[in-house]
């Protein structure tokens, strides 16, 4: 197969899956056309694989196929990798795993123990992967400093590590790494290897955790986003139901993907799930809007399948969606169609969950009740969802007494 053939097949694949009028399809096609123009200007003796790898380096900014440096370049990188798969006679993937930082060999056994402890604590696979990646950053730093064991860590090394994060990560990224570090040393197996207690040291570090992107949209904006979905198409009916579950019940994307048909009690009109992240059982009344959307999706869209999940892929094989698929790129077009400004804000399914929490607070719902609705184990977790509601924070603030 020539590179031209692979690009043509790629474009047909994209149109079939996204529709020729979608912004996502148009973006992918622009990337593939640009690759084709680039290929025409290269040496004829260069192999198509080399052309693709060099093009990836140019448009993504890193060697093929290393992790993309930003979200904005993620789509470009994925398009190039899909074309390479088609060129090699493979089915293009929905998600690609790029080269990640490897854990130093001297700390491999430590990180495996940490993963075992997390799984014993019933942490999800996603949480285990995320925290393992973050703690690897710490271990790589230790190796660079010639520290090959936990016993060799000193308070000075901690200070140097935290300082090294300042120019490499955002405030939220830094906070996430420090949070993982505190979690890691909460296990006696690891903290006991040190000659000092690291928890007070880590707890006292200011990381600017709340200097993060807001995820709040007003109730009117959420309604406009939902109304922007074309519910005359199979995908429209599917994504509309997903967005309803996130905006009405505050379901996480993991809860939506893990939801099974038996979770729906048609007789009592309730949805009963065990939250994927917290393992907490919740039961919620089925609103008319949710009921009709569920019936429309199950009767008119959902393929016949032995899979028990409510949401399954619309093309063969009819299997459940991967837990790694957060649907962010599939949700964004509806924000754009609705004319909702997403600049400087998150815009995925989780932002609809955040918006529900803040809108409930705006309507006067007590924080403890919001925690129950979201399935949080404590109200402290819920407070992080409503931090951006400045007007209500002002109303709750005590007036400074005059001297």
Description:
- This protein has 403 residues and is mainly α.
- The chain folds into 3 domains: 3-87; 105-203, DNA polymerase, domain 1, CATH 1.10.150; 219-392, Orthogonal Bundle (hpI Integrase, Chain A).
- The protein has 19 helices and 3 strands.
- It has a 3-stranded antiparallel β-sheet with strand order 1-2-3, with no helix packed on it.
- The longest helix is centred in the middle third of the chain and has 20 residues, at 125-144.
- The radius of gyration is 24 Å and the shape is globular.
- The N and C termini lie far apart (82 Å).
- Mean pLDDT is 82; it is low at 207-213.
Write the layout of secondary structure elements.
Layout: H1 3-18, H2 23-40, H3 48-60, H4 74-87, H5 108-120, H6 125-144, H7 155-165, H8 171-184, H9 188-191, H10 198-203, H11 219-227, H12 234-248, H13 253-258, E1 264-265, E2 270-274, E3 281-285, H14 288-300, H15 328-337, H16 349-362, H17 367-374, H18 379-383, H19 390-396
Antiparallel strand pairs: 1-2, 2-3
Write out the CATH superfamily name of the largest domain.
Intergrase catalytic core
* End-to-end separation: 82 Å
In total, how many domains does the architecture comprise? 3
* Major pleated sheet: 3 strands, antiparallel
3D shape: globular
> What class would the helix/strand composition place it in?
mainly alpha
Low-confidence stretches: 207-213
How many beta-strand segments? 3
CATH topology of the largest domain: hpI Integrase, Chain A
Average pLDDT, rounded to a whole number, is 82
Question: What share of residues is helical?
Answer: 40-55%
């Amino acid at each position: 197969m020539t590179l031209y053939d692979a690009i043509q097949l790629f474009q047909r694949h994209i149109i079939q899956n996204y529709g020729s009028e979608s912004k996502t399809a148009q973006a992918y096609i622009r990337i593939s056309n640009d690759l084709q123009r680039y290929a025409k200007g290269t040496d004829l003796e260069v192999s198509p694989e080399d052309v693709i790898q060099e093009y990836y380096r140019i448009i993504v900014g890193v060697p093929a196929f290393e992790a993309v440096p930003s979200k904005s370049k993620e789509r470009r990188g994925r398009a190039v990798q899909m074309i390479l798969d088609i060129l090699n006679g493979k089915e293009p993937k929905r998600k690609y795993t790029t080269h990640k930082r490897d854990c130093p060999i001297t700390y491999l056994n430590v990180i495996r123990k940490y993963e075992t402890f997390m799984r014993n604590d019933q942490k999800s696979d996603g949480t285990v992967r995320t925290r393992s990646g973050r703690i690897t950053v710490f271990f790589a730093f230790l190796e660079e400093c010639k520290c090959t064991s936990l016993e060799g860590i000193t308070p000075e090394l901690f200070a140097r590590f935290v300082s090294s994060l300042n120019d490499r990560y955002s405030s939220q990224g830094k906070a996430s790494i420090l949070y993982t570090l505190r979690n890691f040393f909460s296990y006696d197996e690891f903290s006991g290897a040190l000659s000092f207690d690291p928890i007070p040291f880590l707890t006292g570090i200011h990381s600017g955790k709340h200097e993060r992107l807001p995820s709040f949209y007003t109730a009117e904006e959420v309604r406009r986003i939902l109304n922007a979905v074309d519910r005359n198409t199979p995908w429209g009916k599917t994504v509309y139901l997903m967005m309803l579950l996130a905006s009405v019940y505050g379901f996480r994307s993991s809860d939506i993907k893990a939801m099974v048909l038996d979770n729906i009690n048609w007789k009592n009109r309730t949805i009963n799930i065990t939250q994927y992240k917290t393992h907490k059982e919740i039961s919620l009344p089925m609103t008319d809007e949710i009921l009709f959307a569920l019936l429309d999706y199950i009767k008119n869209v959902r393929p016949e399948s032995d899979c028990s999940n409510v949401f399954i892929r619309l093309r063969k094989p009819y299997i459940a969606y991967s837990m790694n698929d957060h649907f962010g790129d599939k949700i964004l077009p509806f924000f754009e169609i609705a004319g909702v400004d997403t600049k400087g804000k998150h815009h995925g399914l989780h932002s609809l969950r955040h918006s529900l929490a803040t809108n409930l607070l705006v309507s006067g719902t007590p924080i403890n009740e919001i925690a129950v609705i979201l399935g949080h184990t404590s109200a402290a977790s819920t407070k992080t969802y409503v931090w951006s509601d400045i007007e209500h924070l002002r109303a709750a603030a005590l007036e400074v007494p005059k001297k």
